[in-house]
Amino acid sequence: MLQQLVWSTELDIERIVDTYGDMLFRICLVILCNEHDAEDVVQDTCFKYLTKSPTFYDSEHEKAWLITIATNRCKNMRRYNIIRKHMDISDLQIYCKEEENYGLLDHLMKLPNKHKILLLLYYVEGYKVDEIAKILTITTSAVKKRLQRGRELIRERYRKENE
Fold it and tell me: Distance (Å, rounded) from C-alpha 97 to C-alpha 99?
């Protein structure tokens, strides 16, 4: 019986890593700007999944839970200043899915965290405003306002760069 439980747990964590690992890593990398810290947070998130053994309604609920745990861990890591040297933006571009997004990624990395996380969840991961509000435990109007402000900041910086 114990052997079956261990086997089941191994398969479950393997499924989580295969399904959500890259997405969680990208989110953490954007927030922390450090590859090693991002890897640590993804591992911590998987460990928390194993120890808590939460039950989910569906795959979206599972995904939202993992993102919430990972972003909260990133916030804690930043708050307590245990971040090592930041990555150079050219190193970060290795993880970008599409080459044409390099410039956008550069601008995104320079935004304050509260805008950076929202823009990443909305535009890259495809979450809706109400889903982001639930994940980050803020109001939908706060999500909309931060998205608007984040777009304005990127637009301003892009204009200044291209003048």
Answer: 7
36: Cβ contacts below 8 Å, ≥ 6 apart: 84
pTM reported for the whole predicted model: 0.60
- Confirm if 55 and 108 have CB atoms less than 8 A apart: no
| Rounded CA separation 108/89 (Å) | 10
DSSP 86: P
pLDDT digits (tens, 9 = 90+) for 15-50: 888 888 889 999 888 888 888 889 999 999 988 988
Report the alpha-carbon distance of residue 73 to residue 25 in Å, rounded. Answer: 12
CB atoms within 10 A of CB 93: 16
Phi first, then psi, for residue 57 (nearest 5°) are -75, -40
Helix (H) or strand (E) holding 73: helix 59-79
- Please tell me the number of Cα atoms within 13 Å of 88 on its side-chain side: 2
The conformation of residue 163, written as its DSSP 8-state character, comes to -
List, in order, residues 6 or more apart from 138 with CB less than 8 Å away.
Answer: none
